[in-house]
Amino acid sequence: MKALCWYGAGDVRVENVPDPTILNPRDVIVEVTATAICGSDLHIYNGYIPTMRKGDILGHEFAGVVVEVGSKDMKLKRGDNVVVPFAIACGNCFFCERNMWSLCDNSNPNAAMAEAVYGYSSAGLFGYSHLFGGYAGGQAQYVRVPYGDVGPLKIPAGITDKQALFLSDIFPTGYMAAENCNIQPGDTVAVWGCGPVGQFAIRSAFLQGAERVIAIDHYTERLHMAEQGGAETINYEDADLLDLIKECTGGIGPDACIDAVGMEAHGASVPALYDYAKQKVRFESDRPNVLRQAIQACRKGGTVSIPGVYTGFIDKVPFGAAFSKGLTLKTGQTHVHRYMERLLQNIVDGAIDPSFVITHNLKLDDAASGYATFNEQKGECIKVVMTP
Amino acid sequence: MNSNGIQRGMGGARGVDIADIERLGLTAIGGMLTGYLLTRKAWGARALAMVGGSMLYRGICGHWPMHEFLHADQEPESARGIDGGIEMHAVVTIRSPLSDVYNRWCDMAAFPQFMKYLESVEVLSDGKSRWTAKAPLGTTLSWTAEITHAEPNQLIAWQSVHDAMVANAGEVRFEEAAGGRGTTVHVRMAYRAPFGSVGVLLAKLLGENPSHHLNEDMKRLKQLMETGEVPTVEGQPHGRQAIPPGEERPDLERRYGWHERDKVEEASWESFPASDPPAHW
Lengths: 388, 281
Prior knowledge:
The complex is a heterodimer. In chain A, 57% of the residues are buried. Chain A is built from 13 helices and 18 strands. In chain A, strand 17, helix 13 (367-376) and strand 18 (384-387) form a beta-alpha-beta unit. Chain A has 2 domains: 2-169 and 334-387, Medium-chain alcohol dehydrogenases, catalytic domain (Quinone Oxidoreductase, Chain A, domain 1, Alpha-Beta Complex); 171-331, 3-Layer(aba) Sandwich (Rossmann fold). Chain A has helices at residues 39-45, 94-97, 111-118, 161-164, 170-179, 196-207, 220-228, 241-248, 270-280, 289-297, 319-324, 336-348, 367-376; strands at residues 2-8, 11-16, 28-37, 56-57, 61-69, 81-84, 87-88, 124-125, 142-145, 153-154, 188-192, 212-217, 232-235, 256-259, 303-306, 328-331, 360-363, 384-387. The model of chain A has no long low-confidence stretch (mean pLDDT 94). The longest helix of chain B has 19 residues, at 20-38. Among the domains of chain B are: 16-63, no CATH class; 82-227, START domain (Alpha-D-Glucose-1,6-Bisphosphate, Chain A, domain 4). Chain B is globular. In chain B, helix 2 runs antiparallel to helix 3.
């Protein structure tokens, strides 16, 4: 089959590799009909995610048709149209039982590696390094899906694959980011990063009752899309960001701040340049400039919600500000399974059509150029979807 | 679990048994020796690199692994009767009732399902069993063990019988986890392998924690009991097996090709769009 494989920083290629096979009784094989490149795939593309091996198949956002099921009795059968959550969860452990699916205790075959780094291992992820299980991803013609009786959600008739596709990650991720803000009527939420997750966080904040959403970025196209979602926008290159946020919240500050950027934050400030330098020489794994700003900007007693990916160590984080203002910090990979059905209902009801975020439709064969475009032209390129 | 057991689990700082100036020297010489020799392909050079490595290790950690190994018997009570052996411990909490977990441990023949290096366990009479483990170069090691003590839903203790090639002993304790989270299993065991001193020294020089494999085994038991399978990625595709474009893999069409569809669906497909579309469309 064709699959997008990673070979190093800036080097991904579509290769002809063997088809996946059923390896465990609860596996299913899905023929991929639509798959997307996630902003977090760019962290891998740029070489910032450790424990990748040359040839690993990427991709954790995909939908498709079930073509083979394992020996265990399954709810799914051949021909079912499904969308698959990016976090791999067993559905049986303490964490799955408590609705914390991305913290599944059993799905990471390389748990020992994760334990050495993080103390305990979280769930395995599709196409996201060996630290998270080394599972082959879905930017391919076929993909093996473990625990097929738990993860995949059937796409009902009348909903297209491209509408359902983002239930695999970015819609639930934006939604959970907003939910982590514990939004009360009248609240103002500030969102850093108007990429796909930021766009869904903006719309989810409104769905959850926010009165105002302030969206922050420096790409005008992305800010424009945020405006279409109802947000007020700030281009951080125009003025001093923290002053502007204070100004437009009447000196109070946002009730909640969402860092939808993560470890590769841009910026031209002194701390941002410091991060660039340290990350280049690998003295710092992540560039936490947005996190610093979010903590600094948040109102007293507010919440900083962090859906953006961080993998290792960060420094110069103003923890004194977080402490003095009594902030709540909420973070973690999305518990996708928790939200899929609920958000599918939103799509069916017509409350939201997630395909608004797609700017580029490509064939899987052109995946490598899709990565390059997404990485280098973040202005006009917001979301790349590929079909085999 | 008693407090002694907890302290063991925690480990602790290892003693420093050489002087600082000597450590500096060893670090420098050992580091250079290792660095240089690792670039050489000959086996002799690699062996010397290990010597260099152990000097480096001693320089940095301030103690000889050998020293520690030879004095292992001075540590408080190792698991019954295995003086100088390798001691291992692991703890895991399984989301299953106490009796289920205990009964699983009574089914010794099924141990190879989760104990990676075990080939088979044959249950004999009188609480004895014959164990066969995988060893390097396709060889196996066998020994006979007997249950020395068992208290249903609480404890199983065993020991290898006299003159076993792999002398070993250990115990498994079971208790209900706090908050109704299932069953906590504590395993402690010790063993002494044939040519043990060499093997153990090598393992220690290479920095392998002897408890590592036992921990992995316990994790697999948990996975098996909670989910019915052990997660794996062995055998999945990746680009390291890529073949040139244009060269077709015959298995693609055979495994997923439309000719595998059942006859009704096939007929539906043939007559589409006159009929209803095929079910999966």
